[in-house]
Amino acid sequence: MTDALDPEDRKIITLARSARARNRVPEGAAVRDDMGRTYVAGTVALPSLRLSALRTAVAMAVASGAASLEAAAVVSEAAELPAEDLAAVRDLGGEATPVLLAGTDGELRTTRTAG
65-87, pLDDT tens digit by residue? Predict the structure, then answer.
């Protein structure tokens, strides 16, 4: 199914999958900003700080000066993304920003907008 994806969307799914595997965390995420830069993150699970991979990737984009997002991808076993994750993407990218959800095998399961 990922073969039908735009190469740039396939790239952020691959990056998200790599972050998940490399860091041995439940989720990996990647976002692409309006300049084409990507930000990759895994789940943060510290005693004093808990962030999903997607919210972490959005925070990294914001901290790096990104003005907007073009797309986001999450690799997870979850069937759906939490509303808080979509809200973070919407805050920076707007309601129409596509959010790709792939399984741990990297296969795209759903695409939705942040809105």
Answer: 999 999 999 999 999 999 999 99
3-state secondary structure 11-76: HHHHHHHHHHHHHCCCCEEEEEECCCCEEEEECEEECCEEECHHHHHHHHHHHCCCCCEEEEEEEC
58-77 burial by CB neighbour count: b if 16+ within 10 A, else e? Answer: bbbbbeeebeebbbbbbbbe
Q: Among 3.60.110.10, 3.40.950.10, 1.10.760.10, 3.40.140.10, what is the CATH number of 2-113?
A: 3.40.140.10
pLDDT tens column, 5-43: 999 999 999 999 999 999 999 999 999 999 999 999 999
* pLDDT at residue 3 is higher than 80: no
